[in-house]
Amino acid sequence: MEVVGVGPWSGRAAPRAGPVRGRAGTVILVALLLTAGALAALAGGGTGDGAPSRCPGLRIASWSADDRTTGAFARYGDDPGRLDDWTGGDGTHSVRLPDGRILWLFSDSFLGRVHGPPNPAGQPHAWREAPPGGPAWVRNSAVVTTPSGRPERTLTGGTAAAPAPLFPDVSARPRHWRWPVQALVEPRTPGAAEQVVRVLLWTRTEGPPPWLYGVPEATEVATLSLPGLRLEGIERIHGPGGPDPGRRVLYGTTAVRRGGTTYVYGGDEGPGATPARPSSYAYLARVPTGSLADRSAWRYWDGSGWRRDPARAHPVLGDGARHGVGSAFSVVRRGRTWVLLTMDAGGPRAAGLSTVATYWACSPQGPWRGPDRGFRAPLPPDSAPDPKTAAYSPQAHPEVGAGGRLLLSYDVNWLGPDSTALAHVNRNVSLYRPRFVRLRFGETAGGPPAPVRVPR
Fold first, then answer.
1. Is the Cβ–Cβ distance between 363 and 45 less than 8 Å?
2. pLDDT over 50 at 27, yes or no
3. d(CA 270, CA 250)
4. 54-443: CATH architecture
5. Per-residue pLDDT tens for 30-72?
6. Contact 413, 392 (CB under 8 A)
7. Which of 68, 118, 190, 349 is least surrounded by Cβ atoms within 10 Å, i.e. has the fewest?
8. Could you report the per-residue pLDDT of 282-322, keeping only the tens digit for each?
9. Which one, of 180, 226, 229, lies nearest residue 200 by Cα?
10. How many other CB atoms sit within 10 Å of the CB of residue 362?
């Protein structure tokens, strides 16, 4: 349950300039260096990422509920035709496959039987049957839709009688599981004709409070075959990354491909450790296309350049107080502008698990500007009066476009005491299912705000 993701690769040196002699030559050299520095700054820090010299600031200009996509998953979840398929899940990510189908990935997932209203408590909700008849619960699953978006198949491990996670648990004792996050289609190896699906995974281990949703352990990459979507293997990229779980970075909450490079964003999980640090920091790695499963190909942004050692990674967004991200956020590229979408987690005045906010930048590593509060995520009509019902984990799905609008999902859950949370989710199937909206972006008004200062 996820509560509250270029330049050339050769190491060849630049040609060495000849000596510059005399005072005039020195002035010319200084002017050239200053000009180069200014151009590099306009291009996003001079990192060789090919960022444009300028880009417009973007914000959410308008939004509308996408009842068609929300309804498609609701109908699929309610369908009594099979008892081993998806009835709900969170951590919603997607990737369009080469044949047009869409693979939707979910973290903790319910399978089994759904009954129409009223529920056993006499409430007007469709409900999930409680064990032993159902529902089954697995740590992850996937749903395959037709090119038009109609869900038609659930992917899990195990058997129909005893379903298991699609991406197997690391161990049962202690409980050590995998949550899928972003997925991409890429060549099996750089330049290869054969394509595969790479799925970024977070591994977590059962832990004491405040780690109710597991202690972050590692980032992995799974490979699925095409077109059959058979799990071929899982490779560890890095982890655990230090003794303080709140500072461990898991990568893959979102990823953006640009040219021959995949930019992979991640975050730490500082929130929950202290009220003085209410928001997470965002981090960034880059990988050549075709190499996501090759840990030696990953490079991490250290604040001024790209390094092989993940321990040297430096945040690209967050100041530990007024600015930051939720532990699950999303990044897309709209024209020349990079837009980050997150729940409004930035500080004591933030709206938290109710409102989606945005930041923008002209290069993948920033500097990021914002936040700009976008919209209050609508909750299911039959659960909205309950103050413990919350929205979280906004995820963009640019491959499911419509008229230039961006499809965004968010998950809905009941965040009351653990002892009663499962009962609430079972009594109302509109909980623990993704909801969808369509976004239009417009340019920010006035001059660009100051960039977020990221402490070193």
1. yes
2. no
3. 12
4. 5 Propeller (2.115)
5. 333 333 333 333 333 334 454 556 899 999 999 999 999 999 9
6. yes
7. 349
8. 999 999 999 999 999 999 999 999 999 999 999 999 987 77
9. 180
10. 23
Percent of the chain beyond pLDDT 90? 57
Separation CA 310–CA 241 (nearest Å): 8
- Domain segments of the chain as ranges: 54-443
| pLDDT on residue 278 | 54
Note the pLDDT tens digit of each residue in 87-129.
Answer: 999 999 999 999 999 999 999 999 988 888 888 888 888 888 8
Question: For residues 117 and 131, what is the distance between their CA atoms, to the nearest angstrom?
Answer: 18
Q: Give yes or no for residue 440 having a pLDDT over 90.
A: yes
Backbone φ, ψ for residue 334 (5° rounding): -115, 105
What is the mean pLDDT of the segment spanning 388-401?
90
CB 184 within 8 A of CB 292: yes
Beta bridge partners of 253: none
What pLDDT digit, counting tens, does each position of 193-247 carry?
999 999 999 999 998 888 888 999 999 999 999 999 999 999 999 988 888 888 8
Q: Give the CA distances from residue 23 to residues 6, 26, 27, in Å, rounded to whole numbers and listed in that order.
A: 37, 5, 6
Q: What is the pLDDT of residue 161?
A: 79
HEC assignment per residue over the chain:
CCCCCCCCCCCCCCCCCCCCCHHHHHHHHHHHHHHHHHHHHHCCCCCCCCCCCCCCCEEEEEEEECHHHHHHHHHHHHCCCCCCCEEEECCCEEEECCCCCEEEEECCEEECCEECCCCCCCCCCCEECCCCCCCEEECCEEEEECCCCCEEEEECEECCCCEECCCCCCECCCCEEEEEEEEEEEECCCCCCCEEEEEEEEEEECCCCCCCCCEEEEEEEEEECCCCCCEEEEEEEECCCCCCHHHCCEEEEEEEEECCEEEEEEECCCCCCCCCCCCECEEEEEEECCCCCCHHHCEEECCCCEECCHHHCCCCECCCCCCCECCCCEEEEECCEEEEEEEECCCCCCCEEEEEEEEEECCCCCCCEEEEEEEECCCCCCCCCCCCEEEEEEEECCCCCECCEEEEEEEEEECCCHHHHHHHHHHCCCCCCEEEEEEEEEECCCCCCCCCCCCC
Residues composing the chain: 456
Angle ∠(278,282,287) on CA atoms, nearest 5: 160
Which residue is associated with the tokens 């920033």? 366
Q: How far is CA 265 from CA 4, 38, 285, 297, in A?
A: 17, 27, 6, 15
